[in-house]
């Protein structure tokens, strides 16, 4: 797809809205950038066409960063024009005409930007990452708003011959674009980060991490209870084994730990000769702790 353009008077005028003082065509280097498109990306997500149209307005004037300069001297370019382009003869995996967001960017020609310009000219720096917030994420199969009302459809699966994807809709802000090494979108080389969406996803990740921790805590407690039962049996406690069992039910992990070490001390004082082989929850899978006598 040809997106090259000539910096004519009208475009130079647009560009000069973003410079501190008016510049001539010779002082700037301009280049086209495909920011994102409506193709399903590797996360199973795609922008709706109206979302791309809104992003075209939001991205004008936004600065992009070339962030993998090993010297750490980040260089920037700015978008001075942006529009949506549709190729009617090419369909996306969802069966829509391929539509992308094409931006025109500029950077000042300086000694420092010389190498970077040569790389862009040579087609080396092609991958672009965009950061934006979207107001809604929709299921492509049933149209459900996935934040408000998640449905059971799974992205990447087919339903009645239609590939399920998550439609990114109603962008609320576009805050950055940058050149990165690994592209998420197959065509444009685009990765996305989201404001509100990212926060919601973080919360989901934290919740699942929390339930994983609770599960591990539960398994560790069960393991300690079993060991306490065995020790009580071994060192002839005052209490009946059944009483010990009831007692351990209400104890926290650290209380169980204290009880366990107290019992262990007592067992060694009583000179009960035994060998204890204890497995950690990780290696035993929380199932068995075995004792050798
Ligand atoms: Zn659905």
Short description:
With 293 residues, the chain is α/β, with parallel strands linked by helices. It has helices at residues 9-15, 49-59, 114-121, 196-234, 241-249, 253-269, 281-284; strands spanning 28-37, 45-47, 63-66, 75-91, 97-108, 128-139, 158-159, 162-163, 166-179, 190-193.
Topology:
Blueprint: H1 9-15, E1 28-37, E2 45-47, H2 49-59, E3 63-66, E4 75-91, E5 97-108, H3 114-121, E6 128-139, E7 158-159, E8 162-163, E9 166-179, E10 190-193, H4 196-234, H5 241-249, H6 253-269, H7 281-284
Parallel strand pairs: 2-9, 3-9, 6-10
Antiparallel strand pairs: 1-5, 3-4, 4-5, 6-9, 7-8
Helix pairs in contact: 4-5, 4-6
Fill in the keyword field for this structure.
single chain, 293 residues, alpha/beta, eight-stranded mixed β-sheet, two-stranded antiparallel sheet, 10 strands, 32% helix, 27% strand, elongated, binds zinc ion
Protein model, in words:
It is a single chain. The protein has 293 residues and is of the alpha/beta class. The protein contains seven helices and ten strands. The protein has helices at residues 9-15, 49-59, 114-121, 196-234, 241-249, 253-269, 281-284, and strands spanning 28-37, 45-47, 63-66, 75-91, 97-108, 128-139, 158-159, 162-163, 166-179, 190-193. The protein is elongated, with a radius of gyration of 31 Å. The chain binds zinc ion. Zinc ion binds next to loops.
